[in-house]
Write a structure and sequence with these properties.
With about 260 residues, the protein is an alpha/beta fold. It has 2 domains: about 10-185 and about 225-250, Rossmann fold, CATH 3.40.50.720; about 190-220, no CATH class. Helix content is about 45%, strand content about 15%. The protein contains 8 helices and 7 strands; from the N terminus they run βαβαβαβαβαβαααβ. It has helices at about 20-30, 45-55, 70-80, 105-135, 155-175, 190-200, 205-215, 225-235; strands spanning about 10-15, 35-40, 60-65, 85-90, 135-140, 180-185, 245-250. It has a 7-stranded parallel sheet, sandwiched between helices. Helix 5 links the parallel strand 5 (about 135-140) and strand 6 (about 180-185). Helix 1 (about 20-30) packs parallel to helix 2 (about 45-55). The termini are far apart.
């Protein structure tokens, strides 16, 4: 049985071992949620969990391939058994397999769609059962400004655009049951993933960041905490009349 106190809701954050997911998990813990930290490698979640516990919160590391239906169902079942029924789901898990279309393999395309879009569908399907039963829930999907199109990312852009459509559809379907569904679409965010992109390009991360900052109206790159703040708003009780929305957190207008 869960030991979570009755006034604490359970939040599930996928892809939470690092970057935006880790910052979001930490923020939701500060907001009073008990947090299930999901990632492909359970051991990789240790740093996020330890950070939450160090601040007095409670978290559980769960290894889960969100693109696998059996693992998604088992992961949510474990969260429900050990922490309590999920009330919040943040679909953040993602991978990159960038390439121009003439170089991109079908596996590169399918892998990215599988984690980002199929994974969000599977996790939402598993979690919504608990949310509908409780008459309250919050789902936040992580899209990207790449949903508007981005060279070398036909797989990633397609997945992120699909997440926006999934968001609006689930908002219609789940709204009558007290569940809101919204979407955060980050612009350029400094993470380990973007550092790896700079390395592949053969430039320093500082050069990479400066290049992007010059094109952003607020003249800086984003931080994982910027995205976590937006998620924090969407999952609040007070945000119950906001659903089916796409919020670009990109330092300037998008879309």
């Amino acid at each position: 049985m869960s030991e979570t106190s009755s006034d604490q809701k359970v939040a599930v954050v996928t892809g939470a071992a690092r970057g935006i997911g880790a910052a979001t998990a930490a923020r939701l813990a500060r907001d009073g949620f008990v947090v299930a930290v999901l990632d492909l490698d359970e051991a990789a979640c240790a740093r996020t969990v330890e950070g939450i516990e160090k601040e007095g919160g409670r978290a559980l590391a769960v290894g889960c391939d969100v693109s696998d239906s059996g693992q998604a169902e088992a992961g949510v079942a474990r969260v429900a058994a050990e922490l309590g029924a999920p009330a919040v789901l943040v679909n953040n898990a993602g991978i990159l397999r960038d390439n121009l279309i003439f170089k991109m393999t079908p596996q590169d395309f399918d892998s990215v769609i599988g984690v980002h879009l199929r994974g969000a569908f599977l996790m939402a399907k598993a979690c919504q059962t608990h949310m509908v039963a409780a008459g309250w829930g919050r789902i936040v999907n992580m899209s990207s400004s790449a949903a508007l199109g981005n060279r070398g990312q036909s797989n990633y852009s397609s997945a992120k655009a699909g997440l926006q459509a999934l968001t609006k559809t689930l908002a219609i379907e789940l709204g009558p049951f007290g569940v809101t569904v919204n979407c955060v679409a980050p612009g350029f965010i400094a993470t380990e993933m973007t550092e790896a992109t700079a390395e592949r390009m053969g430039i320093t991360f500082e050069e990479f960041t400066d290049r992007y900052a010059k094109s952003i109206p607020v003249r800086r790159g984003g931080r994982p905490e910027d995205i976590a703040q937006a998620v924090s708003f969407f999952v609040r009780e007070e945000a119950g009349f906001v659903s089916g929305q796409i919020l670009y957190v990109a330092g300037g207008p998008k879309g």
